[in-house]
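Hi R.,

Quick one: here's the Inner membrane transport protein YdhP sequence you asked about.
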Amino acid sequence: MQSSQSGARPGLVMLALAMGGFAIGVAEFATMSILPFFSADFGVSEAEAGHAISAYALGVCVGAPLVALLSARVPRRTLLVALMAYYAVVNGSSALMPGWGGFATSRFFAGLPHGAYFGVAGLMAASLVAREKRAQAVARVMLGLTVATVLGVPLANVFGAVLGWRWSFAIVTILAATCAIMVHLLAPRLPVAADASPMRELATLKRRQVWLTLAIGSIGSGGMFCIYTYLASVIMQHAGGSAAVVPIMLMVFGVGMTAGQFICGWAADKSIMGAAAGALAVNAVMMVAFWAVAGNLWLMAPVLLVIGITGGLSTILQTRLMDLASDAPTLSAALNHSAFNVANALGPWLGGLALMAGAGWPSIGLVGLGLSLAGLVIWGIAMLDDAPRRRGIPAG
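And here's the predicted structure, written out as tokens:
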């Protein structure tokens, strides 16, 4: 449905949707950046504190399919407002939790609406533009998340250092509530498809290409999340940087992620699978570079910038899932964010294993390399599996 039909102004709608991405981005990535602060406050090791990040990622993985299926008949605007209102409440609870167990549990519940929000928001944005601009529309929604890494996350990190890490989640509460209001006021009232149903959404999971596309994201992006999770510790404990350097390096990473949405969105509208292969290959090279320069802040900065750019892989793969499941896209679009949060759990977990084994901080780059190469292998399998369809041969 185009904007002329819905009466919506695409620019304002995408701004409202991006505000939700901004809130989620601050919550997701700020938790990684303030890890040293809350681990010290709760008296747990940094490796154990990483479990809070994994708990959030698990919440995303569980919540995306559940919300998508249970809300198959709910209008998209109503669903988006409800998800952001819930996000405001649960992140507020994270700010108030007195103990480690309660805090980690609250991060699981905070992750539940994440995937469904981005999936439904991306579908709404794509419905307002021409087909050949879909990837760029999805990228604009995701832009809120990446701008959060440039502005919101460094600010949250400063708050964590000066006022206390709990203020980071208070900021998220305000942002999410603001998004809920904006979406309610600006988003179009799109009717629910007459044949929409949980079973129709589930039917899309019978397609191998959907699973292969999800696997590319869940494995291939793990290295990026591994680097981001332990970046503050690498800077302060290996590269000799002070706590004041951390927000600057996080901002560099965020600038790369923001640029990556534009670059990868544009590339995906040209060739979706070509763009995916390019992002994975560049990421693999940058993982080796990070391993080599982890002790030098000046050399680390440009490497982080490029790693951030490859984060645009999420936009690329979400656009592909829209094609693969065009008849029932909500579940597959939401699962794209589950896949990336599998990566968010897998990367830090494998990196933590390497660190606990005594491999040293630079080793997280080699962990990321292995994950990027595995993503490229899955990409190759997907291309081989899809070859008959691209040649016009009906699937058997």
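Residues 3-390 form a domain with the Growth Hormone; Chain: A; fold (CATH 1.20.1250.20).

Cheers,
M.
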